[in-house]
Amino acid sequence: MESLAETLSRRPVVLDGGLATLLEAHGHDLSSSTWSARLLQDDPGAVQAAHAEYYRAGAEVAISASYQVSEIGFGAEADGLLRDSVQLARRARDEVAPHGWVAASVGPYGAALADGSEYTGRYDLDVAGLRAFHRPRLDVLREAGADVLAVETLPSLAEVEAVLAELDGSGHPAWLALTADGGRTRAGEPVAEAFAMAADVAEVVAVGVNCVPPSGVLASLDGPGRLPGVVYPNSGQTWDAEARVWVGEPGFDPTDVEAWLAAGARLVGGCCQTGPDDVRAIAASLESLRGER
């Protein structure tokens, strides 16, 4: 089977949408601090079914439910749940889209804290501490059988530096996605610096943004050049960490895909508050654009 990096050199690839969003739409209560990761314990079949639904909608990559899994939230059970998250996505892929890929979600330190700090970058750990936090999760996910690591929603250069140091020399492909605002990380640093750092790590196959409003995507893309772009914005709503709800009006428009592609995006999907209909529209848009070229 062709690797994801090889395919990206030829054409864009469709990512899935918000996993927790779809699970909530099916009636699951994800209001706890462990979010969708809770279902890895309580209802793994629901997680597999959600992955399958996204593949049927046209996604070529499923992102695992490991975003919020760490020892902070799950203790000694964390490693097993990380492995389970990849296996559930693999089963869905093998059933529905055997030529697709599985990405193991590597969420930021702030996700484990469940305090919204992935949207601020205000952490109590330095680079060394962040490396120690990420290292065991990366080790387990690399061995779990995912095609690529989805390092996502990073809010600061310190966390970028930490994760890249752990990826460097590992031999396992990964993409790097930041949550940003106007071309700057949530901690206020230039996103371009993160992309430049990633370009020096052979394991990184794409760089970009996720869980940003659609209107903020273009300001935070690297442009055609060193690495393919990865883009999966949220609906345009804002996360209220205290109330644990999304607020505001959605503004996700799949017709934006053409502009994202022109700016270097090659992996395109949706994040929080996007669903199968959005993925279906993205897939149709990419198919239409391929037909025009």
Automatic annotation (TrEMBL):
Residues binding Zn(2+): C211, C271, C272
Domain Hcy-binding residue range list: 1-286
Annotated Pfam families: S-methyl_trans (PF02574)
Cofactor(s) required for function per UniProt: Zn(2+)
Single GO term (MF): zinc ion binding
EC number per UniProt: 2.1.1.10
Protein's name according to its UniProt entry: Homocysteine S-methyltransferase
Organism: Nocardioides flavescens
Gene: mmuM
